[in-house]
């Protein structure tokens, strides 16, 4: 891992605004490539076709096969993945598992459209099943007893990060796009994001969670979200190498991945090179203080980067910003299972709408009507009370069971 240690030091140097690029990508990405009205959004009736399996010499390759929806995860896909992975974990003929996506995405996250539809139909039990199933699978990946390789050759957001980052190896490429843009649709970074973002160097995790900014493959390696970087032209060779391995030894898998790895560095425009400013602004205790710090920096230096970040923060749901900041701060002192259990509570609160219906309004504004003019409730940070934030971290009701995860120990992926 000498290559990784050489690039990580770049985080301590000083990026640039990629707001326009983010908006262009997420306007299609978050909608999971919808080309039809939401009411025409087809359900997944055959999870076997949405999750394909290739049997190799000593491994299994999972293909997320929903390219027209950027491989967005559904409840049925999560259940199939759980079943497959559990069977393989106990199968001595399976040495390791590889996951990849078909098309231009690895996985754009959970199917937010199906969640939107379920909320509108009053199907909260369906929402619970969705989050419970996917979070359980993400924990399974994070504690898997066999090597796991995720090939992130394309869009990797939200739940796509949740099913890959907890694994042993994450191969990013020049086509990789990573973000957690949930605050822009009235939600919060979930799927284990409060764990892996909070363990990034400095306050990069807070920055990513609040702004939804985009990282490319080189930047993912530089901050530790990915373990390897390779040009997309090498992906076929990597897959061939992995398919021919007969091993369950992670060091042998690592040698294969290293053979096709490329060394690259974040560009001068990268956020990775603005660590000093980022840490100075995002280390504050409240969203208001973070915004004040950014405004101060922008005023002193006429820094366009600070101004662009301010625009993104002022566009996002005020409630989501406060909830997300607290989630990341708590995640820094929690294990993966604790983060997922807490995020499950938060997600149920969001879809139940007892505090706010911001997730419905955010999806409407960004994906349905596409007017990009959400009417958040509460409308501003000053209207977000501590009780509102606290409720997101509480059970939906006194009788509501928490996410039940098995006790396992392999959580050292960051």
UniProtKB/TrEMBL annotation:
GO molecular function annotations of the record: 3-hydroxyisobutyryl-CoA hydrolase activity
A GO BP entry: L-valine catabolic process
Keywords: Hydrolase
Catalytic activity: 3-hydroxy-2-methylpropanoyl-CoA + H2O = 3-hydroxy-2-methylpropanoate + CoA + H(+)
Gene3D superfamilies referenced in this protein's UniProt entry, alphabetically: 2-enoyl-CoA Hydratase, Chain A, domain 1
SUPFAM superfamilies per record: ClpP/crotonase
Domain Enoyl-CoA hydratase/isomerase intervals: 60-393
Pathway noted in the entry: Amino-acid degradation; L-valine degradation
Superkingdom of source: Eukaryota
Family as reported in the entry's similarity comment: Belongs to the enoyl-CoA hydratase/isomerase family.
Function, as annotated: Hydrolyzes 3-hydroxyisobutyryl-CoA (HIBYL-CoA), a saline catabolite. Has high activity toward isobutyryl-CoA. Could be an isobutyryl-CoA dehydrogenase that functions in valine catabolism.
Name of the featured protein: 3-hydroxyisobutyryl-CoA hydrolase
